[in-house]
Amino acid sequence: MKLKGSEIILECLMREGVDVMFGITGGAILPTFDAMTRYPQIKHIHTRHEQGAAHMADGYARATGKVGVAVATSGPGATNLVTGLATAMMDSSPVVAITGQVGTATIGSDAFQETDVTGVTLPVTKHNYLVYDIDELAYTIKEAFHIARTGRPGPVLVDVPKDVQNTEIEFVYPEEGITLPGYQPATTATCGEIEMALRLIRKAQRPVILAGHGILMAGAMREVVEFAERTQTPITWTLLGKGAVPESHYLNLGMMGMHGEAYCNTAIQSADLLLAFGMRFDDRVTGNLATYAPEAKKIHIDIDASEIHKNVHADLGIVGDLKMVLNQLLPELEPMQHADWMEQIDEWRDDTTKRDIINQKTSRFVAAQAIYDIWRFTGGEDGGETIFVSDVGQHQMWVAQYCRLEKPHTHITSGGLGTMGFGMPAAIGAKLGRPDAEIWAVVGDGGFQMTMAELGTLAQYNVPVKVAIINNHFLGMVRQWQELFYDSRFQATPLVNPDFVKIAEAYNITARRVEQRSAVNDAIQWARAVDGPVVLDFDVEEHDIVYPMVPSGADLHDMIRRPMPEGRKQS
Amino acid sequence: MKHTLVALVENKPGVLNRVASLFRRRNFNIDSLTVGRTHRDDVSRMTIVMDENTSPAKVEQNLYKLVNVIQVDNVTMKPSVARDLALIKVRVEAAETRSQVLQVCEIFRARIVDASPTTAIVEVTGAEDKIASLIELLRPVGILETVRTGVVTMARGEDVLDGNGYKSPGNGSSSNGKHNGAL
Lengths: 571, 183
Ligand SMILES: Cc1cc2nc3c(=O)[nH]c(=O)nc-3n(C[C@H](O)[C@H](O)[C@H](O)COP(=O)(O)OP(=O)(O)OC[C@H]3O[C@@H](n4cnc5c(N)ncnc54)[C@H](O)[C@@H]3O)c2cc1C
Ligand SMILES: Cc1ncc(C[n+]2csc(CCOP(=O)(O)OP(=O)(O)O)c2C)c(N)n1
Known about the structure:
The complex is a heterodimer. Chain A folds into three domains: 2-170, Rossmann fold; 191-348, Rossmann fold (3-Layer(aba) Sandwich), CATH 3.40.50.1220; 367-539, Rossmann fold, CATH 3.40.50.970. In chain A, 36% of the residues lie in helices and 16% in strands. Chain A contains 23 helices and 20 strands. In chain A, helix 1 (5-15) packs across helix 2 (30-36), helix 3 (50-64) runs parallel beside helix 5 (82-90) and helix 3 (50-64) crosses helix 18 (423-433). The longest helix of chain A is centred in the middle third of the chain and has 17 residues, at 339-355. Chain A is globular and about 75 Å long. The model of chain A has no long low-confidence stretch (mean pLDDT 97). Chain B starts with a strand and ends in a 28-residue tail after the last strand. In chain B, a hairpin with a 5-residue loop joins strand 2 and strand 3 (43-50). In chain B, helix 3 (95-108) runs antiparallel to helix 4. The A-B interface holds A 118-119, 122-123, 126-127, 130, 147, 151-152, 154, 180-187, 190, 303-306, 308-310, 317-319 and B 9-10, 14, 17-18, 21, 25, 57-58, 61-62, 64-71, 163, 166, 168-171, 176, 178-183. The structure holds flavin-adenine dinucleotide (FAD) and thiamine diphosphate.
């Protein structure tokens, strides 16, 4: 079969099982867009900005576990992808980006719309390629997908010059497996490592599991729960580990870290054994490293050797796939009890419950309660399967704290890079990957406006994502830091916003403003009944703070707590 | 003490750039980095020397994250041969400087590889400190230019880095035959 490079790209995508891709056309990628007309099996979503395309591919990947695909032209098209690639890189999300490049003859001559895209994206991709030779195109794309989805997943970019897209050759799909001499992702632990782990686990009196994103990537949800139940070890999770273990599980404590539950952080600081399962001790998780979990031995299981000892010294580091390693450990583990330890944690937890904003009566329309209600009224209390996609800021933390999730892959957010503007496009990608799931994008008014143009995409393809704008007329999270650490000098955080309802309606998207808590349920049910996208503008209290909070660089147990409600005794 | 890593990498365009970019991004302080071909067309070899404050285990683990890096070996504590090569051009107009240079060369087993009526190029190979001392001795004569290749290193005897046995970068415990942690 004779095919052009552009067609080979699409043939290869089809064989990787790609059913949808996201992007914007342009001169250097025109041949591939033209070839799309001959491959209608792959749906193309025409976005409004390449950043949106990259976030959509990322959201698709996180919701499905499959590789998400973004396409862009050379120069500005490709550079617009960069923020999305960096976001995917930080959170180990499998994305393949395909970019057009100027013709091979003009590469290096500052040709029109030429950018050294493999150079620019080198530090924000797991790997990248510039394909000079049409004979290598098919194999390169196959390799790109392999690298994106295996080991520690991540984004891979393939830059294809226009003449390579236009060259015709006899197409033979490389059926053989990938051979990469320098790429052999780690899998299992050695016997010695298992022995040592067992010894540490048996000795522990106050163990805590640190549940990370790696659990979801390894698909080790069942193993982690089994481990926790067998050894009676409480679990606390990172922002990206949310949903890996059902939140109603009696051993599941809640989130750790800067805005984690105070009793989770106290438990970590008092633990004598930390079991880090697929998490990388981000600085938002550890606080001051010098005082982090001083009494605890640490067992760190991660597929990436460079994560072991990177931030926190591990007494035992195991480089391997979490699911495989836990399956090596489990048959050796006998049941254990840590009743005193659990009791102690419950005591700490009780104090947190008393301070919780959800349990406080207020006449103000408080964002945390609005977000809690979105979760409740979309079936949250019945263990619903709604997927929550958040943007970055205060609302993101409240989603993490109050949307209690039972199912894996129902929480999508930009954790490592903290990319404002991620939420809505990522939700579009997630919905295209999981058409049967109910999807809510909970976004701040600041971040929403960074990729607001994707309302156009939402409308054009009638993607039934429900967008909840938590509108506090501020860059809320930064306003919080200014209030706490900069004497309330609100430099460049107040926002004069457009009327989001009118904006949505201009796109023919159904929209409504919600101004008080009593109207929330009705608005949510109304939005759910619409067969298409909906924008809800929650006009919430402006001056609000996410509690608890570990100030940046402070000790993990040194948290700013929400004051006790009136009439309660401080304990 | 300085640390020395030897790395086998795929002989593909851009690999040196990936390695250099990694060192810059992770803030690894590298003393010297040499690259060259090997007896295999598809494999190049790097010798990386870093200062005492840079953790060789970290560098090794991060090198393994690069798809094109095949194998890394920390040879710091191994019996090994390390060589640097220098070409030093000196001014030798007077007859006595000429004989002075010849004398110094003899002591250092250096060779004159080019001579003009006014200049000579001295070639010397050896460990870095030997070359440093030679340069000090030639300095009064009048050095015009110097070029050095940077150190290349090879472990002695049966310890062979052939790219076949992957080494685990985990925990810095090399040579347990496990797959590497390339990601
Ligand atoms: C405003 C803001 C506030 C934040 N506050 C908090 C907070 O309070 N608490 C908090 O937790 N986070 C917080 N974060 C997020 C934080 O920055 C990190 O993104 C997050 O802690 C990372 O979680 P992780 O280590 O589980 O996931 P990742 O960063 O995705 O790391 C996953 C790890 O798993 C490993 N892995 C992958 N696959 C496997 C496998 N198959 N087997 C074994 N290991 C594997 C990877 O190598 C990696 O080391 C905040 C972010 C923002 C933007
Ligand atoms: C692209 C980008 N720019 C700047 C920041 C810094 N930043 C972090 S949170 C935040 C405020 C977010 O405000 P908003 O989107 O309104 O959400 P809120 O905190 O009010 O819920 C800012 C500016 C960022 N994370 N990303």
